[in-house]
Amino acid sequence: MRDLECDTAEEAVERREQELRDKLKEVIHCDATNFESFFDAQYNSRQYDIVQSSRCFESVLDSPEAFQQGIVKLASYMKPEGYLILLTALNSEWYSCSGLDYKLYALKVDEKDIQTGVEMAGEYRNVINGNSKMLAVFCLQD
């Protein structure tokens, strides 16, 4: 595979990676088990265009209700018309990582648990949900 501006596919991948890194302003880490000090104080009053969680809450929380409160907390950091992206495995009590031979704990949540959390966060529109078993994207409305 050749890119018009590069000699090899590897160079094209490297260039695209650098383009994405140049556009990304920052990645902010949080403590998903502590909703009171979710982010460091400097980030608590800010709002973001995109808030994403990838297999986070179901790995550290112990109830669907806590999962829903996590969604509410994440949504509180969204700008109006911002996007909340949740990557999760529905109805799964375990997952494996990078082909490891052992299973890792996961809180079993279903589509209703996610829907309830999003509804608790405020008005929204479901942007993507369709047939996907792994991705739910919601946009809160003003």
If you had to describe this structure to a student in words, what would you say it looks like?
There is one protein chain. The chain has four helices and six strands. It has 142 residues and is an alpha+beta fold. It folds into two domains: 25 residues; 110 residues, Vaccinia Virus protein VP39 (Rossmann fold). The strands form two sheets. Strands 1-2-6-5 form a four-stranded mixed β-sheet, with helices on one face. A two-stranded antiparallel ribbon has the order 3-4. α3 packs across α4. The C terminus is likely disordered.
Could you list some keywords that capture this structure?
single chain; 142 residues; alpha+beta; Rossmann fold; two-stranded antiparallel ribbon; 4 helices; 30% helix
Q: How is the largest sheet built, in terms of strand order?
A: 1-2-6-5
What is the CATH class name of the largest domain? Alpha Beta
Strand content: 15-25%
Q: If helices are DSSP runs of H or I spanning 4 or more residues, what is the number of helices?
A: 4
Name the helicity range.
25-40%
Instruction: Count all strands and give the number.
Output: 6
Structural class: alpha+beta
Q: How many structural domains does the protein architecture include?
A: 2
> How would a textbook summarize the main sheet?
4 strands, mixed
Radius of gyration: 18 Å
Q: Spell the H/E element sequence.
A: HEHHEEEHEE
CATH-defined topology of the largest domain: Rossmann fold
CATH architecture of the largest domain: 3-Layer(aba) Sandwich
CATH superfamily of the largest domain: Vaccinia Virus protein VP39
Shape: globular
Alpha-carbon distance between the two ends = 45 Å
Query: Any low-confidence stretches, pLDDT <50, length ≥5?
Result: 129-135, 138-142
- Overall residue-averaged pLDDT value: 75
